[in-house]
Amino acid sequence: MSNDFIFANDPQEPAKAETSNTKVKWKLLIVDDEKEVHAVTRLALMDVLFEGAGLEFISAHSLAEAKQQIDQHPDLAIALLDVVMETDDAGLQVANYIRRDRENRFTRIILRTGQPGQAPERAVVMNYDINDYKAKTELTSQKLFTSVMSALRSYRDIMRVERQRQSLQRRLDQINDLLKHNYPQAWQAVQQQQQEEDDT
What is the DSSP string of the chain? Predict the structure, then answer.
């Protein structure tokens, strides 16, 4: 592993504004073929607290392992993906697996690469549905902390909107059921109107 990836000392440690409790932890998937990367990532983020909850670290060292972990943990908050592993684009394949195969639009994807030339930032950001791109050589522990905190905030907000959407859908379904059983003629009229709007 390149020595450049060993995190540089930051002038200040992140402040701990929150205290740990029994809240469910935020799941963070680390996908990298180098064990040292997993170790330093855990070390840099082990004290992170967000809304009273810490991080649960999940590791994968290959494309196959990453897919397995993604299948087992559909509620991943963040995926930290190395681009180059067993192939030059293994991390990009993981990103596609999350977005296309699993149809997961919620997990925040942060790409990390030690070989930017293999996956130029502009091309990757344009062609893959990722949320951040970092070169390992410039990624200090403070920058990683900042990226992870930003991703957690984004994930939290997205999930709030999704829960609200689901709640509204349940209410609409309940209203629809009541209308169907108690006012069948009105229900049929609504269905016909909806069909006409869909056809236009």
Answer: --GGGSPPPPSSPPP--S---SSPPEEEEEE-S-HHHHHHHHHHHTT--BTTB-EEEEEESSHHHHHHHHHH-TT-SEEEEES-SSSTTHHHHHHHIIIIIS---SSEEEEEES-GGGS-HHHHHHHS--SEEEEGGG--HHHHHHHHHHHHHHHHHHHHHHHHHHHHHHHHHHHHHHHHHH-HHHHHHHHHHHHHHHH-
Residue ranges of domains in the chain, CATH in brackets? 3-159 (3.40.50.2300), 165-199 (no CATH)
Note the pLDDT tens digit of each residue in 121-137.
888 888 999 999 998 88
Average pLDDT over residues 134-152: 92
